[in-house]
Amino acid sequence: MRINKWTAIGMVLGLFLVLGLPQTEAGIEELAISVVTLTKSAASGDKVMLTIKTEVGAMCLGNRHSESNPNDRGKLGLENVDREGKASWSWPVDPKSTKGQWAVTLQCSTGKKKGWLHEAFEIRE
Fold first, then answer.
1. Are the C-beta atoms of residues 63 and 74 closer than 8 Å to each other?
2. Burial of 104 (0-12, 13-18, 19+ CB in 10 A)
3. What span, in angstroms and rounded, lies between the C-alpha atoms of 40 and 43?
4. Is the overall model pTM greater than 0.85, yes or no?
């Protein structure tokens, strides 16, 4: 099957929308987000912990998913950033979780600022 250049361009743009990559909007400023702590490697029964730092009053939410099995995923609920500029999440590693690399994606916003964070951690045997 042959694909013309306009179909290919449309497919690439659609992929960006599906992946939820950050998009620049008029009047939107970038919100800086940094990792304070992230458990880099955990086994069944361990807790994975993530703490971020950003602007006080921001609201953040996200998800986590296996790199090799996108159906194995979980949500990171909505958190309000505290007076120290921090927000935290923790969750136990399910014994049925796919082993290997996982991704954590967060989106935070406050007023006219938005920021995204993409990090990785490992679930081991």
1. yes
2. buried
3. 11
4. no
Among candidate residues 119, 87, 77, the one with its CA nearest the CA of residue 101: 119
Query: What size, in residues, is the chain?
Result: 125
Q: Is 7 left (phi over 0), alpha (psi -120 to 50) or beta?
A: alpha
Closest CA to 44 of 106, 93, 104, 117: 93
Strand-strand pairing, 34-38 and 41-43: unpaired
| Neighbouring-strand partners of residue 39 | none
Ordered DSSP codes for 56-81: TT-EEEEEEEESS-TTSEEEEEEEE-
**What are the tens digits of pLDDT across the range 15-52?**
444 444 454 556 789 999 999 999 999 999 999 999 99
Closest residue by Cα to residue 80 from 103, 105, 61 = 61
Residue-wise over 57-69: b if at least 16 C-beta within 10 A, else e? ebebbbebbbeee
Q: Tell me which amino acid residue 40 is.
A: K
In angstroms, the CA 21 to CA 108 distance is: 13
